[in-house]
């Protein structure tokens, strides 16, 4: 990673202050990860309760590290004080990078990104953590598309090693180098990928999910499928449990975008198990009921 950071560091801009827009599952995790690797992060949301939740999650993660003896109280205090929750847009003005992690809605994201550009300097890099929306589409109305790219983290951010760095049509090489170096500094493994719906990981993951829902239509039992994939095949978890972790609502939405983007390749059937669960509001771990029940 150090070699990667050094190699890409040649043309990279220094990133000493980050800002994250959205303090949800992903935004909170990105701010925590950045701060814990020594790059202070402003965590901006429109909702005070989300900010409190984001800070609570960071405190919980740090407490675990403290219990395991990986950090001391001093270090914990230092990391916590370098995550700065804010409701105020002006707070992001001096950031070297702004990572947008608001809801997965193209209209909301486009409006937020345009606002961000007006709040920061011309040198600031702006990145989106979108899971599925093409970066060139989000860049369409931006004044500085060369300073914009995708920076796609995975859930939970502090555990998942990969970060997809997505090159939009007009993204400059300097922006890509800077974001690659920042991801490496955060302790992640960046991969640079081309722009398309779902980028790299979701193009691999969704045919797998849709293959799984087809198995169910053929009469398979989801518990058995999970058991085979986890216990016999050796993956960390099976597809049903993974969908519960991701969130059936998130999976449903991303699945629709992927099926629309690649109708021939995704292999989605109409009214599959993900659609049925979504309509029944069984969203997985987040609301206690998905393929499995969580009490
Ligand atoms: P979330 O619903 O947990 O959080 C979204 C947050 O954005 C909320 O706290 C909301 O108050 C805030 N927000 C909404 N509008 C805002 C605005 N104008 N300014 C500032 N904050 C605003 O969502 P999430 O799961 O963290 O997802 C965020 C993004 O990350 C989405 O684009 C999603 O596709 C992507 N993503 C999610 C996952 C996942 O597994 N959840 C994985 C990778 C990428």
UniProtKB/TrEMBL annotation:
The active site is at residue 152. Residues 198-294 form the 3-hydroxyacyl-CoA dehydrogenase C-terminal domain. Residues 18-196 form the 3-hydroxyacyl-CoA dehydrogenase NAD binding domain. NAD(+) binds at residues 26, 45, 102-104, 109, 131, 155. Residues 13-295 are annotated as: 3-hydroxyacyl-CoA dehydrogenase. Substrate binds at residue 202. Heterotetramer of two alpha chains (FadB) and two beta chains (FadA). Involved in the aerobic and anaerobic degradation of long-chain fatty acids via beta-oxidation cycle. Catalyzes the formation of 3-oxoacyl-CoA from enoyl-CoA via L-3-hydroxyacyl-CoA. It can also use D-3-hydroxyacyl-CoA and cis-3-enoyl-CoA as substrate. In the N-terminal section; belongs to the enoyl-CoA hydratase/isomerase family. In the central section; belongs to the 3-hydroxyacyl-CoA dehydrogenase family. This is Fatty acid oxidation complex subunit alpha. It comes from Agarivorans gilvus. The chain holds residues 300 to 594 of 719 of the full protein.
């Amino acid at each position: 990673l150090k070699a990667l950071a050094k190699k890409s560091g040649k043309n990279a801009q220094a990133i000493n202050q980050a800002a994250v827009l959205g303090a949800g599952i992903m935004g909170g995790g990105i701010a925590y990860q950045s701060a814990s690797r020594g790059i202070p992060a402003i965590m901006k949301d429109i909702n005070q309760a989300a900010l409190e939740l984001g800070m609570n999650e960071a405190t919980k993660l740090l407490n675990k590290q403290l219990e395991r003896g990986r950090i001391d109280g001093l270090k914990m205090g230092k990391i916590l004080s370098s995550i700065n929750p804010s409701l105020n847009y002006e707070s992001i003005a001096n950031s070297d990078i702004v990572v947008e992690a608001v809801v997965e809605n193209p209209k909301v994201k486009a409006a937020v990104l345009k606002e961000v550009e007006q709040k920061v300097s011309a040198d600031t890099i702006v990145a989106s953590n979108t899971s599925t929306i093409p970066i060139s589409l989000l860049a369409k109305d931006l004044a500085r598309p060369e300073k914009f790219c995708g920076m796609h983290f995975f859930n939970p951010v502090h555990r998942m090693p990969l970060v997809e760095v997505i090159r939009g049509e007009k993204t400059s090489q300097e922006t890509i180098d800077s974001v690659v170096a920042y991801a490496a500094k955060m302790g992640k493994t960046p991969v640079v990928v081309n722009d398309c719906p779902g980028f790299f990981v979701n193009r691999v993951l969704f045919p797998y999910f849709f293959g799984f829902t087809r198995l169910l239509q053929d009469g398979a039992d989801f518990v058995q499928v999970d058991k085979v994939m986890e216990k016999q095949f050796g993956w960390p978890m099976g597809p049903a449990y993974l969908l519960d972790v991701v969130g059936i609502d998130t999976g449903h939405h991303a699945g629709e975008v992927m099926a629309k983007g690649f109708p021939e390749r995704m292999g989605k059937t109409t009214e599959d198990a993900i659609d049925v669960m979504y309509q029944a509001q069984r969203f997985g771990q987040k609301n206690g009921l998905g393929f499995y029940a969580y009490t």
